[in-house]
Amino acid sequence: MRTVFLTLVLLGATLLLGSDLHAQQPMPSGLDAIPDKMPFSQPYGAPIGAQQAQSLIQAALAEAGKRGWPMNIAVVDSGASLVAFVRMDGAQLASIAIAEHKARAAVKFRRPTHVFEDAVQKSDYKYILTLDDVIATRGGIPLIENGKIIGAVGCSGGTGSQDEVICTAAADLVNKKGQ
């Protein structure tokens, strides 16, 4: 009886190894696609100064105040160091670190943080969460002046879409000027 069982197991294993079930499945096309150019390769420039960072904070404060959304707003330089920060009255405490994290991730990875959120929403791109310093939510935007990244702004306190609206009001002072 034992010999018959062993023979059947070996026969089944042989059939499985020789069948299409064992064939390696191709990776999804999005993961194995090789772009011609390096994505998000904007060069870094001189760091944003304190005065310019404060003007971005003021623009974000004005937009958040107009909408009644208490926010934490952070501006970092091209080396991801904090240059300016404000916590509006009533903004949640947890969002202090989150606003800074969003700004740092945007400058370190040279892309808006909504890119990470979009990637996580696609099941094939969950690996993005294994990268150090990623934050997969909207509200971090790089600041590009004369074609170079000079810093980033990060906002937190509302929903991701609210955070992004406030960051955009600040980032547009730099990013729209260069277009």
Model description:
The chain has 179 residues and is α+β, with helices and mostly antiparallel strands. It folds into two domains: 2-32; 50-175, Haem-degrading domain (Beta-Lactamase, 2-Layer Sandwich). 44% of the residues lie in helices and 15% in strands. It contains six helices and four strands. The protein has helices at residues 2-18, 29-32, 50-67, 94-108, 114-121, 160-175; strands at 72-77, 82-87, 140-145, 148-156. It has a four-stranded antiparallel sheet. A hairpin with a 2-residue loop joins strand 3 (140-145) and strand 4. Helix 3 (50-67) crosses helix 6. The longest helix is centred in the N-terminal third of the chain and has 18 residues, at 50-67. It is globular, with a radius of gyration of 24 Å. Mean pLDDT is 85; it is low at 4-28.
Count the E strands.
Answer: 4
Major beta sheet, strand line-up:
2-1-4-3
Secondary-structure element series: HHHEEHHEEH
Q: How far is the N terminus from the C terminus?
A: 80 Å
| Structural domain count | 2
Q: CATH homologous superfamily of the largest domain, by name? A: Haem-degrading domain
**Quaternary structure:** single chain
What fraction of the residues are assigned to beta strands by DSSP?
15-25%
Mean pLDDT: 85
Q: Which architecture of the largest domain does the CATH hierarchy give at level 2?
A: 2-Layer Sandwich
Shape: globular
**Annotation field: number of helices:** 6
Spans where pLDDT lies below 50 across 5 or more residues:
4-28
Question: How many whole angstroms does the radius of gyration measure?
Answer: 24 Å
Give the helix/strand class: alpha+beta
